[in-house]
C-alpha cells in the first residue's frame, strides 16, 4: 500500500474534512521544523486562471462558474460536485493526477529526514504509494459537523454532503500507522502531538 523506495521518511497526514489536519501540520512545522507540503496548495495551482484544468472547467460549466474577477467561484463549484457524484468524479479526474505528479516530482528533491505530505484525500485519490507512513487526524462526527458548518458557513445539509463525499473516518483510522484524536481542545491536541513526536523520535 505505502511506498517502499523512499529515501526520506514521508508522513502522509490525512483525516476527514474539518478534523484539524491544518492545525496539526502547522504545529509540526512551527514546533519541530518539519517540512510540510499541502495537497490543497497544489490543487489551487491546478485550477489557476487559464491553466488547462481551469479551461476544462469553464468549458464544462460555463462562465457562470466564475467570480467577477474571473477566478473560480469555489462555493458554486462545491455545490455542484458535492450534490452530483458524476461531476465530483469528473473534477477529481482532472485535479488528482496533477496533484499526484506535483508530490511525485518533489520526492527526489527532499533533503530532510522527515517530511509531511498533507493530503486530505490520501486514500480516496490512491496516493498512499507516495508516503512511507500514514497519520490520521480524527474526531467524532458531531464535532466534525459542527466545525465544518462554522468554518465554511455551511448549512447542515451541505456540511453532511461534504463529509459523506469522503471515506469514513472509521475506515481511515483502521488504515493508519498513527491516529491523532482531535476531540478535545487545542491544549490537549498539542500535548498528544508532543507525546507522539517524543515516542516517534525515540523509535526512529
UniProtKB/TrEMBL annotation:
<dbReference type="GO" id="GO:0005737">
    <property type="term" value="C:cytoplasm"/>
</dbReference>
<dbReference type="GO" id="GO:0015937">
    <property type="term" value="P:coenzyme A biosynthetic process"/>
</dbReference>
<keyword id="KW-0963">Cytoplasm</keyword>
<keyword id="KW-0808">Transferase</keyword>
<keyword id="KW-0418">Kinase</keyword>
<comment type="similarity">
    <text>Belongs to the CoaE family.</text>
</comment>
<dbReference type="InterPro" id="IPR001977">
    <property type="entry name" value="Depp_CoAkinase"/>
</dbReference>
<dbReference type="GO" id="GO:0005524">
    <property type="term" value="F:ATP binding"/>
</dbReference>
<keyword id="KW-0547">Nucleotide-binding</keyword>
<dbReference type="InterPro" id="IPR027417">
    <property type="entry name" value="P-loop_NTPase"/>
</dbReference>
<comment type="function">
    <text>Catalyzes the phosphorylation of the 3'-hydroxyl group of dephosphocoenzyme A to form coenzyme A.</text>
</comment>
<comment type="pathway">
    <text>Cofactor biosynthesis; coenzyme A biosynthesis; CoA from (R)-pantothenate: step 5/5.</text>
</comment>
<protein>
    <recommendedName>
        <fullName>Dephospho-CoA kinase</fullName>
        <ecNumber>2.7.1.24</ecNumber>
    </recommendedName>
</protein>
<dbReference type="Pfam" id="PF01121">
    <property type="entry name" value="CoaE"/>
</dbReference>
<keyword id="KW-0173">Coenzyme A biosynthesis</keyword>
<dbReference type="GO" id="GO:0004140">
    <property type="term" value="F:dephospho-CoA kinase activity"/>
</dbReference>
<keyword id="KW-0067">ATP-binding</keyword>
<feature type="binding site">
    <location>
        <begin position="18"/>
        <end position="23"/>
    </location>
    <ligand>
        <name>ATP</name>
    </ligand>
</feature>
Amino acid at each position: 500500500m505505502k511506498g517502499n523506495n523512499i529515501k526520506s521518511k514521508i508522513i502522509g497526514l490525512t483525516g476527514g474534512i474539518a478534523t484539524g489536519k491544518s492545525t496539526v501540520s502547522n504545529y509540526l512545522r512551527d514546533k519541530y521544523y518539519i517540512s510540510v507540503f499541502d495537497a490543497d496548495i497544489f490543487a489551487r495551482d491546478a485550477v489557476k486562471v487559464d491553466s488547462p484544468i481551469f479551461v476544462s472547467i469553464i468549458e464544462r460549466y460555463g462562465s457562470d462558474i466564475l467570480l467577477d474577477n474571473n477566478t473560480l467561484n469555489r462555493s458554486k463549484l462545491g455545490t455542484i460536485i458535492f450534490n452530483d457524484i458524476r461531476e465530483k468524479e469528473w473534477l477529481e479526474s482532472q485535479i488528482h493526477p496533477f496533484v499526484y505528479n506535483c508530490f511525485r516530482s518533489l520526492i527526489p528533491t527532499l533533503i530532510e529526514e522527515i517530511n509531511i505530505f498533507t493530503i486530505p484525500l490520501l486514500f480516496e485519490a490512491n496516493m498512499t504509494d507516495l508516503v512511507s507512513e500514514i497519520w490520521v487526524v480524527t474526531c467524532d462526527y458531531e464535532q466534525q459537523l459542527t466545525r465544518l458548518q462554522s468554518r465554511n458557513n455551511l448549512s447542515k445539509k451541505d456540511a453532511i454532503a461534504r463529509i459523506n463525499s469522503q471515506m469514513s473516518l472509521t475506515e481511515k483510522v483502521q488504515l493508519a500507522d498513527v491516529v491523532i484524536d482531535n476531540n478535545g481542545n487545542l491544549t490537549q491536541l498539542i500535548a498528544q502531538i508532543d507525546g507522539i513526536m517524543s515516542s516517534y523520535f525515540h523509535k526512529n
